[in-house]
Amino acid sequence: MPIAIITGPPGAGKTTVASRLAASSRLGVHIAGDEVFHWVAGGYVPPWMPGTSRQNGTVISAIAAAAVQFADGGYDVFVDGIIGPWFLPHWLRMSGRGRPTHYLILRPSRLVAAVRAMGRPAPGDLVDSHPVATMFDAFEDLGYFEAHVLDSSRQDIGATVAAIQEGLRDHRYLLDPSCEAGDMDRLALKFGVDPPDG
To answer: What is the pTM (predicted TM-score) of this model?
Structure first.
């Protein structure tokens, strides 16, 4: 089964959307990437901090491995998290470049994303304005990956889910590593992400 990665800046609605997409599938799995980061109990460093390349690459690879196992078991897998194009070399090394993977970037306007992010009530949610703004900036320089962006600024969750379902049916967001490798590498270098081992 194909895997769908739902990414974007904080406040984009990734978790809510991925959860609804999984629940609407006959066999659906939602992997919340933020939760996997918090599996690191000793030595955890917030992933937006300097010097976290090894930690972040390891966690992304672990998420990919779990997604592959569920997909191979016949599940529709929806992964949410800040899995920017700069992390895709880690993802592809673990999942295999030949596996169909949908890659969708939810990117509402900066104002909408900030209001949503700062208004989240759950413990552990990122509500610090500086990393929220920094991560929004990271999703503005995407190059080829602009084709994977959905602007959800004026959509409620139902409309966003419907738009994504249509895009998945049309294969609008399928990754093509042969075309997109240049921007993956460029962004990995820009954000100081070490290449995967091997």
So the answer is: 0.90
